[in-house]
Amino acid sequence: MKRSHIILLIFIAIAIGVLISFMGNLSTYETIASAKQKEGKTVTIIAKLDNSQPIEYDPAKNPNYLCFHIADTLGNKAKVIYHYEKPHDMEKAERIVLKGRMNGDVFEITQKDGILIKCPSKYKDDPAAARKNLSQNQ
Q: Model-level pTM greater than 0.85?
């Protein structure tokens, strides 16, 4: 075999290895019910804040403890414990993306970047403001 063929084969093997390593990081979104079946494993859930339950957060007592309830699109509900400070404008969220583990009926988030708040667009209810902003940016 020529030296160029060997180098090409090594390059292809490295590329395949990199692709396989990325495949392991692909995550799918789970429902609360499917997350309960995968108890102890890290999963990602998209849900809405359950406003019928209070949000427990007392920064004077413990700034790294937030407890709230969520509901997914199928109507399943769960209690969530987040071990960091409360995200800004959490009550205004349309959806919340959570990454953590189920422990019984409680979803625990142990990473600071384990919660992502999806807030509503400020132009959603005002199409005129959206058009004005578009025309200014062009």
A: no
